[in-house]
Specification:
The chain is α+β, with helices and mostly antiparallel strands and 303 residues long. It is built from nine helices and twelve strands.
């Protein structure tokens, strides 16, 4: 009887262990995939690249999202694709290294995190960007209202980081940044809503660099400095919104260039000149109402 009972217990224990192992192996064998619903965008300064380069760029972006170690693309485009990745794809921060395969059949990618943590970070980034877009009324605001909403959100919700080299990916997740990552996040959110945006590298009289943005509103380009807005007034104003070349010079910026080192055309439209004297503002009935010094309200129609 004892022998029979021992056999039964042994079989039961073995079955339990088998089930446990099966569940564990099943969990490990199931690939963890990221939930990414954002657009693959790029700095508008590169708009004239060949469509084949953009296709290769998107293929590499998808590979990074999925944490694929290899992607088949035309390696002849590698340098330009890398330029797009470094300037326009925040999740590039998850990549440790890109390498052209020995047979030139594509690119090998190594990563900074293992699969589970990689997927978690992708999902967190995707979720946070969608939250910001919702807070900025992307589905109901006009394009220009959205730009104002994003500018205000960035300049009032992101703090200054002690790490001057912080990237835009960490700025989104940590809520802190440098002038360059501030600008990158601002541009990324505009591009997600099909608004032309450019990353701008400014320099003062001592050649100290500062990150700025440019964007096209009603087919005219303006400059934006969300980090200085935060530093000077906590993001409450629009003092550094929709600036011209003259406005930049008055703020100590002596020169500007694109991320590809090109020089922007003159920016001189004074549509948002009232913002230089902004005490408070609001959006009402598709208009930006700017209260300037002395209490006068300047009305700017928005499209």
């Amino acid at each position: 009887m004892k022998k029979i009972l021992s056999v039964v217990l042994a079989i039961s224990l073995a079955a339990t262990l088998f089930c446990a192992c099966s569940k564990s192996n099943s969990s490990n064998d199931t690939p963890q995939t990221a939930d990414f619903s954002l657009k693959y965008t790029y700095d508008t300064v590169y708009y004239d690249y060949d469509s084949s380069i953009f296709h290769a760029y998107e293929e590499v972006c998808k590979a990074v999202i999925n944490r694929d170690s290899d992607v088949r693309v035309n390696t002849g485009y590698f340098n330009k694709v890398q330029q797009l990745l470094y300037t326009s794809f925040p999740l590039n921060a998850l990549v440790q290294k890109y390498s052209v395969k020995d047979d030139d059949s594509g690119i090998s990618i190594s990563y900074n995190y293992e699969q589970a943590e990689h997927v978690e970070k992708v999902n967190l980034f995707n979720k946070k960007i969608l939250e910001i877009e919702k807070a900025c009324n992307i589905s109901t605001a006009s394009k220009e209202e959205y730009v104002i909403n994003v500018y205000h959100y960035i300049s009032s919700h992101i703090k200054q980081s002690k790490n001057v080299a912080i990237n835009s990916f960490d700025t989104v997740l940590k809520g802190e940044g440098s002038s360059f990552s501030y600008a990158n996040v601002f541009e990324y959110l505009l591009l997600q809503n099909d608004i032309d945006a450019y990353h701008i590298i400014g320099a003062d009289a001592s050649d100290v660099s500062w990150g700025l943005s440019a964007a096209a509103l009603d087919n005219k380009v303006y400059y934006f400095d969300p980090m200085t807005e935060f530093l000077n007034n906590g993001g409450k104003s629009l003092y550094y919104f929709g600036m011209t070349d003259a406005d930049l010079k008055s703020e100590g910026i002596k020169s500007v260039k694109f991320s590809n080192n090109g020089v922007p055309s003159p920016v001189n439209d004074k549509r948002f000149a009232a913002c230089r004297k902004c005490e408070k503002w609001e959006i009402k009935n598709r208009c930006l109402l700017v209260t300037v010094n002395g209490g006068k309200i300047v009305k700017i129609a928005l499209k």
